[in-house]
Batch of 2 targets.
Target 1
Amino acid sequence: MKKPFVTLEQLQTITQQYPTPFHLYDEKGIRDTARALYKAFSWNPGYREFFAVKATPNPQILKILKEEGCGTDCSSLTELMMSDRCGFAGDEIMFSSNDTPAEEFALAAKLGATINLDDISHIDFLKDTIGYIPKKISCRYNPGGTFTLGESEEGFQVMDNPGQAKYGMTRPQMTQAFRRLKELGAEEFGIHAFLASNTLSNEYYPALAAILFQMAVELKNETGCHITFINLSGGVGVPYLPDQPANDIAVIGEGVRRAYEDILVPAGMGDVSLCTELGRFMLAPNGHLITRVLHEKQTYKDYIGVDACAANLMRPAMYGAYHHITVMGKEDQPCDHQYDVTGALCENNDKFAVDRMLPKIHIGDLLVIHDTGAHGHAMGYQYNGRLRSAEVLLQTDGSTRLIRRAETPEDYFATAIWD
Ligand SMILES: *Cc1c(COP(=O)(O)O)cnc(C)c1O
């Protein structure tokens, strides 16, 4: 079962200081996750996690991750600016963007970030933009087709569609790109691929690693390029459903090590550093959306109206994503009531849960919506004039700290032209 990282008593104290709704993050959980990840890859001396900023673009979260040895993975101008302002140095920033505007390449190059090119045409676009090709450069690969793992009677453990994804270069383009980059002065080469999202399987990274390691050996033989890093990107998932087993990052790290020993080491490429760009795995379980019940409405269904809405957490409305809900203080009561849990947007998809079995809910109850630490606040918007909520950090000593204030009507009005 899913257990919140706070108790009802703690939340009653916290909500006296910070009105609901707000996102709450667990500093200890974030640090523990980062440490387990680094331990799993400690066999690779150059290993680094570049946290995918888009998952949780909060400077205080980034600073915690920086203390744990992480860099950042950026895909936009403002993410680059935020990384710079948080004190990440050039080699601690990965720039994995697509459809990239010139000014973003220019800033990435100025900061000394490692640029990961999404397309072969971006080589000359980059050179024309900044006037040179950086000595260290990476290319994103897309094998096309479908990517599947672990077929069983219930279907595939992992299934995704790289052939329908807009990202990355084809296999022949990878060879051409490396040759062209080498001609233009690149000296250290990297390879990146992101083949499946939110995978719940200890096999995803090892399978991806084997594909990339094999290609690295081929590219080295074909082009003579010195491949110094391989980027496994994101995609290691988290169990949103209460009965799903979590990934075991130690097993994943060991699986990648075996592929490394089998493929890279015999090819004389035992000096390759690995990188990851995890977002969801690092943060999702370490965040809760805290919301209070405002209304109960009984018509054709039984609705629980809360003070958060899809503007605070878009995933259920956008993808029908499941987020577990704990009714605080009622953890031991039977889930014998069926509810739709809704926000206030004038959009019928503004529901955190549909036909969810929960304990009997009363007005004023506090709800924890689980696994909102990644792509939660980050995907917030202001539709219907609903404003983005605060973000609060539950620190390792049990105290709390406001790490982003809630938006105010003045923020909402600030970009309007009034006369
Ligand atoms: C979104 C993204 C990630 C992070 O993905 P998760 O599923 O959160 O791990 C990493 N790299 C790139 C390029 C991305 O776009």
Note: The first helix runs from residue 8 to 17.
Target 2
Amino acid sequence: MISFRAFESNLKQVKTRINTACVGVGRAVDSVQLLPVTKNHPLDAVLYAVRAGLTAVGENRVQEASQKHAQYPGEVRWELIGHLQSNKAKDAVAMFDRVQSVDSLKLLNRLNRCAAQAEKKLSILLQCNTGADPNKHGFRVGEMEAALEAAVAAESLQVDGLMTIAPLDDDLDVAKAAFEGLRDLRDRLSGEYKLPLTELSMGMTGDLEVAIAAGSTQIRVGTALYGKES
Ligand SMILES: *Cc1c(COP(=O)(O)O)cnc(C)c1O
């Protein structure tokens, strides 16, 4: 694990990248949130983020997040960004403030039932496999209307917007196409269903600039902040 000083320096660089990207396309700098991704890093990663003034962290596994949650006494929002098996939905509802990786109707319905039992309204994002990457989870573009209708009908879920992970490809045009695809999809669904769907969670260490240019409201960054996974 890197030192806090090194983390601060990394954070400064990431903020500069966000700034430059926003200015380059005429967006307000505060229209993009930075979600530090603490997965595969120890609890210190969460402490660093909070100490530096960040208010949420992203984790991709329920068990790992629960361990950190149990050890961490302070206030921070926990967001789940990794694939969730339906049988872990109850634990996820208990622990996370938002689940970004809702990628099947089965999971959506299970989360709704668990949230109802917990007497909680759970914020979610619908994960879309915009790049139609066979190695990635998420609804296909053609399944998104049905997913959104199910989410709206689910009384214990609150759908904030959409999330995607770009296909793994060195060519940034591939990421760009995926991000613009998600934005266009959001615009269409938002108009059709008269829903704000304000959150567009897209962009990571390697492609945050193209994501911001395409309209991302939240980038999820691990490597650029914490270094390679430890
Ligand atoms: C790990 C992860 C990230 C962070 O990726 P980096 O390239 O390390 O910035 C973002 N989103 C998801 C869904 C992840 O699993």
Note: The radius of gyration is 17 Å.
